[in-house]
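Protocol step 4 of 5: obtain the predicted structure for the target chain.
Materials: sequence only (see below). No template structures provided, no constraints applied. The aim of this step is simply to have a reference model before the mutagenesis design in step 5. Sequence pasted as it appears in the construct record:
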Amino acid sequence: MKEKSYTELMKSGAMNPKRAKEAFMVNLYVDMILSEALLKSEKEKLSLQIDQAIDKKDKKTFLKLSTQYIELNERFGT
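Step 4 output (structure tokens):
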């Protein structure tokens, strides 16, 4: 099967605005899912590291990681 060039893809998208809108929505949805998965993973990782710092009574590391966790929540509005 012959692959279409970027120009051909753009022309076909312009000819079918409904299809282009659907593709945009799918891409947006996929991006949201990936962002949510990365956020969840990063929060879990930080939580585990914070718990380990508490267990070790490592105040310096705890404060650093807690700040990162708060900044992550503020950045993503969670």
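Step 4 remarks: The mean pLDDT is 87. Residues 6-76 form one domain.
Proceed to step 5.
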